[in-house]
Amino acid sequence: MSINLLRGGGGGGGQGAAVARRLLLRHLTRSPAPESLSRPFVRSRLFSNGLKESPVAPSLSVPSSRASSTTTRNAFVTWYLGRIEARPVLTKSLTAGAIFVAADISSQMITLESSDSLDLIRTIRMASYGMVLSGPSLHLWFNFVARIIPKRDLISTLKKLFIGQTVYGPIMTSIFFSSNAAAQGETSAEIYARLKRDLIPTLKSGLIYWPFCDFITFKFIPVRLQPLVSNSFSFLWTIYITYMASLEKAIVEEKSND
């Protein structure tokens, strides 16, 4: 019966066949096409109608080497900040010692003759000064200045800069020359002669270099990181003062008996 209706045969079958064909066509148009055929079909129909597929946004991938170096750097910064919070004095002391070692080796490499070798004893002296004196003193100094002048506006920054150049700088430079000379076995008279010869020229050179460094440190850097930034600036300065400290003994002026 259904076959006859589809073929359109028999009596009133013409009308029935027409109805059956309409039902069949409606069913076929509603049925989803197979996955393998539907997408190409839809794409071909879209392109035939002058439409374009939506572009797929390219994935922004970071090269693996750059990503790994960034991750390592961020991990180190996080670790270092954690050490500053947990053990501030020790961390800053070790940092200062490492910077003094690097600066002293650089200073020796600049002035070293081709036939000479590095003076490791001198490097150990510089490392000891950085760890024992420079690192702890910077920690105490920056906390003290932040306590007496807590603001970070321009006037307050200039006040901190002035105190650093007139108080902390001369004191620590004198201690540096004196302790280094004493470690080399110089007498008190020889240490005094060295200070008389080298201290003022060194402080004058510091007035050219340190005001700019101190302004950046006091104005823009948090107190807990100021010793680190100051030590970083001091790398070039330490190359200079380690050279000054390595100069020959100053001539001791003998007092006349007249």
From TrEMBL:
<protein>
    <submittedName>
        <fullName>Protein SYM1</fullName>
    </submittedName>
</protein>
<keyword id="KW-1133">Transmembrane helix</keyword>
<dbReference type="Pfam" id="PF04117">
    <property type="entry name" value="Mpv17_PMP22"/>
</dbReference>
<dbReference type="InterPro" id="IPR007248">
    <property type="entry name" value="Mpv17_PMP22"/>
</dbReference>
<comment type="similarity">
    <text>Belongs to the peroxisomal membrane protein PXMP2/4 family.</text>
</comment>
<keyword id="KW-0812">Transmembrane</keyword>
<dbReference type="GO" id="GO:0016020">
    <property type="term" value="C:membrane"/>
</dbReference>
<keyword id="KW-0472">Membrane</keyword>
<dbReference type="GO" id="GO:0005737">
    <property type="term" value="C:cytoplasm"/>
</dbReference>
